[in-house]
Amino acid sequence: SSLDCDIRDEIPNDIQGFCQQHPTMERIILSNGGTGCKLFNKHFREWWKSGQLILPRSSHNNNNSHNNNNNNNNHNQSLKYFSSVAKLSKQSRTKTTASTTTSTTTRKIECICALSVSPTAAQYSYKQKRDFWDEHVYKPGLLSKERIDKERSQEQQSRCFTTTQKQN
């Protein structure tokens, strides 16, 4: 078996390139806890600085009192591992001049540190893990897919309508 601590001189996959090739990507889920997040931050620091990577959108609502003590409803892990690098994008944007700022229409990709499903992550119950994954991974993914499918269908209908008008 392999252990994360046995890895020396890790070589990351080209996650940024993959996301560029797949423009519908909206979130990156790191599913092996803190170790994976630390390595992600190490290798993709410049990507964070670009402002394209963001903290999970629902993490901004953690001030609600009913969320503060419930690991299933917030992103404590994401905040723990990504807050410092997410600040880099704000710092780099404030240092740029108006002529060099990036477009505000740049796609944003949420980075989520998911609760590890490994049995070694024993501080979380099965139910906590299941609920977290359902709420922050599966449901948002399905909603995104439905939205994208609807947009594509509307685009196809629009093209068909335009083609029909040209033929008449």
Automatic annotation (TrEMBL):
Residues 155-168 have a biased composition (Polar residues). Residues 57-103 form the Polycomb protein EED-like insertion domain. Residues 58-77, 148-168 are annotated as: Disordered. InterPro entries: PRC2_EED-like_ins. It comes from the Eukaryota. Residues 58-76 have a biased composition (Low complexity). This is Polycomb protein EED-like insertion domain-containing protein. It comes from Cyclophora tenuis (Marine diatom). The lineage of its organism: Eukaryota, Sar, Stramenopiles, Ochrophyta, Bacillariophyta.
